[in-house]
Design goal:
The complex is a heterodimer of chains A (264) and B (785). With 264 residues, chain A is an alpha/beta fold. Chain A contains eight helices and ten strands. In chain A, α3 packs parallel to α5 and α5 runs parallel beside α6. Chain B has an eleven-stranded mixed sheet. In chain B, strands 13-14-19-16-18-17 form a six-stranded mixed beta barrel. Classes of the chains: A alpha/beta (264), B alpha+beta (785).
Amino acid sequence: MDNTAMAAENVIEVRDLCKTYITNKRQLNVLRNVSFTITSGEMVAVMGPSGSGKSTLLYSVSGMDKATAGEVFFCGQDITKLPDNKMAEIRLDEMGFIFQQMYMMKNLTVFDNVILPAMQSKKLHESRKETKARGEELMRKFGIIDTADNDINEVSGGQLQRACIARSMINKPRIIFADEPTGALNRSSSDEVMKEMVRINNEGATIMLVTHDAKVAAKCTRVLFIVDGNIKGEYELGKFDDTDESVIKSRERHLNEWLMEMGW
Amino acid sequence: MLFRILSKDLKRRKTMNVILLLFVLIASLFTGSGISNMLSVAGGLDHFYEIAGAGDMIMIFSGKSAESDTKKLVNKCAAVKSAGVEKVYLYSNCVENNGVELKSSSPAFISINDTAEKIFNENNEMITSVDEGHIYLNKSFMDINDIKTGDTITIKIDKRKTDLIVDGPMKDAVFGNANMIGNSRFILNQRDFDEIISNPVFNSGNYAGYFVYVATDDIQGVKDFARDLDSYEQALDMATLKIIYIMDLLASIIMLIISIALIIVSFVILRFSVNFTLDEEFREIGVLKAIGLPNYEIRYLHTIKYMGIAAIGSIIGTVFSIPVGKLLLSSSAASMVLESTAGVLPNIAGGLFIAIVITAYAWHCTGKIKKFTPLDAIRYSQGGERFSGNKGLRIPNSKIKTALYMSLNDILSSPKRYISILITFCLCTLIILILDNVATTLKSDTLMDAMMIDGDVVCELYPEDMEDMRRYDVSNLCQRFEDKLNADGIPCDVYTEDMLMLNYEINGVEDNYLTTTGYNVPENTQKFTEGREPSDPSEIALGAKLAANNDLTIGDTLKVDYGHGMKEVTVTGIYQSFNNMGESARLCQDPPFRGGDRYPMVGYYIIGYRDDPNKKTAEERCRFLEENYNFKSVQTAATFVSVNMGVAEPIDAIKILLLGISLIVVLLISILMERTFISGETNQIALLKAIGFKPGDVVTWQVLRFSLVAIIAVLLAGALSVPLTGTLMNPVFSMTGISQVDYTYNILNITAVFPGIIIAMTVISVFITSLYTNKIKSSDMANLE
């Protein structure tokens, strides 16, 4: 990833995004004319009460779900009109995904799971050896190289989620989408995971994550607060590059105050 | 609890349950109708022979003293309880329909007034009279020659013709199969009979014969008595003759074999289904154990569903098996007087058996529950999955396609899961390949030596020429024809074989046996499994079965009557032969009865090429023989064997039927397994789509792993089919007198055609089922969360 070249670029630009579900002949407007942008190098948290549309927003922006109306520009290209196969290619090559449950292919080792997207992708034109070397490097960075040959049921939740982050980065994506990445983890594992997320963000990765945890959101550069499918406000926190406990607490306090102002 | 588990299972695993139900249903249907048919045919046959008055054995007498000999037998033999005697006139190849000579037409003409063995019409009523100008024919004879009731057939003997209208098929117990019994009784009105036998041809007395139906408790005693009678030819006991109805039992046997295969497949599905359910519900089972439910109660909960499926399937199967059984029986009843005495009991027994077996196996499969502990509910909470140590394949350094890698990895990671598919597909292919190997062997020239003498072409003589052959030196005739062909540019040997009944004394017991002798046969042409061919009249070779039955081996001696009293001969060779089911003997090429009052009876010239012509040249030579020489037919050895054996075609038909059933099994198993795999892998499929795998990649992954297993299965089946064909079929062939068969294999069929069909069916059915993965969207990750 070329951090400097992409510094000012809009990675995601969302215009009037709407998502409507029809359930039992009832129309449910989950997203209503949502608009926002994410520039490269940002780490944007989406917060909001349960059922506010956070996850739907993430899935619609990442092209995993079709928007009912509106436009989503990914690096300048409207992805709402793209056919499924083209969208799959973009997700494989240019987007990374982290989910709350650490879903992985059950018959593969942790390492093979990490490099699986690279095996499928033609983006980097590298040999399998080079891919494996990068996979090992990523796992080493995330402190899970010792688990490389393990089955996925042989490692802890925190290790597995770090492996998921490594997997999301294996194809050097332009953006990583994370849906409640710490939601299924205990506090200690959650801290480990967020430490890695912040680190990769500081190394240039653009991240959009959904969370209901203010402690997690406080480590992001910006927070979008969504209620009833609308972005009610956004809060600029700036880069988080300090591990000083007092800085974390201060950002968390300010964020909480803002969230209270927003009515949460 | 029970209702909740059942309703949940029925809702979630509809496909699996429906397919299992189908297998149980078909297995019950086939078992019920198969058993019912088999009991009816086997039981009904004895009844048929009894009401026909067929006795316990049939004896054949021919020659000048035949009439007095039969009287002597009936009146003086103490072992004869009662006997029916028929005078018949035998004349071959004399029946035509619209100018075309009919097959298997070796009629034994008899007047309805002279019949000793009773015949029956289609309604099982005894036929006591035949109208003038009319005739009844065997059902099988009519079928072979495509004759319908009301058709007119022509008896043409020495330029005299008699037209007869066919009144319908008759049921003739002893001569019921025109393919397997050389003669077929032609039962005529007295006037027509008199007209036919008034032909001067019959004046010689060579064509008259006597069929004697003997009721006795001492078959050997009757045979011993008959041996001293000059005109005695042959005796066959009814137990042996009933083999002619084996084809009527074949359908039932095949149905029972298919049911066994279906039961095995049902077991495979059951095991898979139970394991899948238990893997999915291990937490609930753990909780049940934690709250103190004993193992048997939990096993009962998981067995009851299969008991229900087994009960419903077998009840429906049993109900359908009743009309299917009747349908099967109607086919056999066309040539037999059959009465179904067992009612629906066999059908019910078959269905009950299937239900019990399936339920018992389901109970057995739930034994896994005993290994579960309450801790399982807590320990493996990850996504509802239980993982075992990875035995799979690591991503290699080579550029293997992801879908192929994942397929291979899946198979190696969970081999047990795929072994069920492997066994089923292998079994399906194996059955077809074994039948194909048998059919190919029966259509090849491999068995030519067992039918006659090894050779490349068989030229069938016209009856007139056969008569001529009686008057000449056969060896000389063969040599002259050979010289002509050599002059025509066909380097070959021409030879033939004569068949006759001779009297033997083996281990002090006298009996008549079919005997063959060759004329002008080149050295080493006749095959022997042991020893060598007899070189002079003091030597003899024996059919394998005759040797085995009498505990004779090479170097042993026995006595043979060449027409001038018993003469001691030494066994020099053992050979295989279909003739008289292996109970035959082979003499040297210059037996001392030649030139006496016995004339050779040969019907064919056999041509053995000295070069090794390719297929095209061989065909050209056959055409040349047809065009330039006056033969009734010119056949390659393979065609001759196939036509005369007459079973290659039925086996081919059965093969096609089994192929159809196998394809249905492959289809159902593929759908069932694939559907189950998808439901267990929903989260993984959604994940792959979320991280950028295209729907096509997912489908390819799903299809490839089944295809790989199918490829392994068919390769395994191909490899196993070669040794298993011999293992399974040798006992069958040995019943006909052949113990060592050099099977012929159609490599294209084994390696490409049938495996290709099985693989194609697998790919198509898995592909269509795997399209269901298109319903799983990457956005389903949100729902899974």
